[in-house]
Amino acid sequence: MNFPRPLPSPNALTAPYWQAAHQGELKLPHCEACAKFHFYPRSTCPYCGSAKLAWQAVSGKGEVYSFTVVHRAPSKGFEALVPYVVAVVALAEGPHLMTRLTGVAPDAVRIGMTVQVEFQKQDDETTLPVFKAEVRT
Ligand SMILES: [Zn+2]
């Protein structure tokens, strides 16, 4: 039996993020007043308070800021994934976001390793951004 994993429920603030991901782009809210990116999406800029925000594509490049290895699936939908890596990625543009790492064995993940966004289509409406580790040998 195939157990589904929970998927995001976009709202007015987050829908642009998920729409961009579904089109294979990583977009973040960008403040037009102070020119800084932030994440997670908010109605006003956390740095200057401006409501002049616009979604802009970012490079999708970053590095591992912190991580943990999940060995026990939080629900049946995750059982096929364990062990997997949940990481906080520091994007090149500044903001941090929580994600799942791919392309690297959990015991090979290191703080500071370079990662690049990639997209995993879940169904006809939802695509999840994950980050692929660039492993140098
Ligand atoms: Zn601002």
Compact overview of the structure:
The protein has 137 residues and is mainly beta. It is 6% helix and 36% strand.
Structural class: mainly beta
**In the residues, how many domains can be counted?**
1
Radius of gyration of CA atoms, rounded to a whole number: 16 Å
And the CATH topology? OB fold (Dihydrolipoamide Acetyltransferase, E2P)
Numbering strands along the chain, what is their spatial order in the largest sheet?
A: 3-4-5-7-6
CATH architecture group name: Beta Barrel
**Percent of residues in β-strands:** 35-45%
Q: Which ions and ligands are bound to the chains?
A: zinc ion
* Average residue pLDDT: 95
Helix content: under 10%
H-E string: HEEEEEEE
Q: Span from first to last CA?
A: 38 Å
Shape category: globular
CATH class: Mainly Beta
Description:
The chain has 137 residues and is mainly beta. It contains 1 helix and 7 strands. The strands form 2 sheets. It has a 5-stranded mixed barrel. A two-stranded antiparallel sheet has the order 1-2. The longest helix is centred in the first third of the chain and has 8 residues, at 15-22. It binds zinc ion (ZN). Zinc ion is lined by residues 31, 33-34, 36, 45, 47-48, 50.
